[in-house]
Specification:
Layout lengths: L7 H7 L2 E7 L6 H10 L9 H7 L5 H11 L6 H17 L2 E8 L2 H4 L5 H19 L2 E9 L4 H11 L6 E7 L11 H9 L3 E6 L6 H11 L4 E4 L7 H10 L2 E4 L1 H5 L7 H10 L2 E4 L4 H4 L3 H12 L3 H13 L5 H17 L6 H5 L1
Parallel strand pairs: 1-2, 2-3, 3-4, 4-5, 5-6, 6-7, 7-8
Helix pairs in contact: 1-15, 2-3, 5-7, 16-17
The structure holds adenine and zinc ion.
């Protein structure tokens, strides 16, 4: 059979993949912010989507969070959270996402008086609807805001327990400065005892990056690390992570906001060394692209060949928290998709 001919960018954008590092709270597009604000009778300073997009400007993690968090003030009803999550799932499905583990930050909403049941039910309804409409599979991963303290994190963990069936695991995000993973050791141990998987943000180029990665791996014994590419500075830690099969959920376009080289050298070095590197979008409207766009950006910047792109996509399923049979079936789907788009080697080429 003749292979389907597509260019390298289309190949990278559309290849079947899992997304493992996506903050649903960070997917609020300006157009949707306008619609939801109007529906809820909230008066905004801006009157057009372009004006709102103009405010999506920052220069580091802290200034990004200071733009992103106040945008949450428009979200109040189950329908708002349904619309937010549905909009993301539609876009992700169009960029080849077959499975997504969606981060959500309960404290951005409970701290304003929105009940846990409101947002979690909206997300859940969006997930069920999108599975039916776009064939995308999704689950939730609950993140604690590390700058809101350990007590509030533990209380949030307790509040999540009635919804355990819908939540695969827990994570740790927000401002990393002065908030090391070790502070959350007990919270994460309790989460694990409740059956949750554990991941932790170790954002790029933080103060004490390596020590935070060490704590995540050796003290919290995490299942994955979000970002974490500074680990290349410590060969011993990297070897431990590789031998344990720890996934690293990297985000090239997010990185490019603080590091002009998007950490491409580190990402590719880790990939080639055998680390379970995946590529993800983090907070797409803020960082300039959804997950397929991140694949294309990295491919173009680092000059990835198709085998490297396929390896990243395969890693995304292998480092997901899907049960083995589902993981295997997505990998089989990926291999078949690639085979349909790859010319068969001639016997002369095979002899080489
Ligand atoms: N919240 C949303 N995106 C984040 C990121 N990249 N790091 C920490 N907290 C976040
Ligand atoms: Zn993140």
């Amino acid at each position: 059979m003749q292979p389907l001919i597509i260019d390298d960018a289309t190949f990278a954008r559309e290849i079947p993949k899992a997304e493992l590092h996506l903050h649903i709270d960070g997917t609020l597009e300006p157009e949707l912010k306008l619609v939801i604000a109007e529906r809820n009778g909230i008066k905004l300073e801006q009157t057009t989507a372009d004006e709102i997009r103009e405010t999506y400007k920052f220069h580091d993690l802290e200034s990004f969070l200071n733009v992103h968090y106040p945008n949450m003030d428009v979200l109040w009803t189950e329908q708002d959270y349904f619309d937010l999550c549905s909009a993301y799932l539609r876009r992700a499905a169009a960029q080849g996402v077959r499975h997504v583990e969606i981060f959500f930050d309960p404290q951005l909403h409970t701290s304003r008086g929105v009940p846990f049941s409101t947002f979690v039910s909206g997300y859940r309804r969006a997930i069920i609807t999108a599975e039916r409409e776009f064939g995308i599979h999704a689950a939730l991963v609950m993140c604690f805001l590390r700058d809101h303290g350990v007590k509030y994190a533990m209380a949030t963990l307790m509040e999540s327990l009635p919804y355990k069936e819908w939540i695969l695991g827990v994570g740790l995000d927000s401002n990393e400065q002065d908030h090391p993973p070790i502070d959350f050791k007990d919270v994460m141990a309790r989460a694990r005892a409740e059956g949750y998987m554990v991941t932790v943000h170790c954002d790029i180029d933080q103060v004490n990056s390596i020590e935070h990665i060490r704590q995540a791996l050796m003290e919290l014994e995490v299942d994955r690390i979000d970002h974490g590419t500074n680990i290349v500075e410590d060969d011993e830690l990297l070897e431990i992570a590789i031998s344990r099969g720890i996934g690293f959920t990297t985000c090239p376009l997010s990185n490019s906001q603080v590091n002009p080289g998007m950490k491409a050298g580190e990402i590719v070095a880790m990939l080639d060394r055998g680390a379970l590197i995946s590529v993800n979008s983090d907070d797409p409207p803020y960082f300039g692209g959804y997950v397929g766009d991140n694949y294309v950006a990295l491919q173009e910047y680092a000059g990835l060949d198709r085998d490297q792109v396929v390896k990243i996509a395969r890693n995304s399923f292998l480092s997901s928290w899907l049960p083995t049979h589902l993981r295997d079936s997505y990998v089989a789907e990926l291999e078949a998709w690639v085979a349909e788009r790859t010319p068969a080697a001639t016997s002369a080429e095979e002899a080489l």
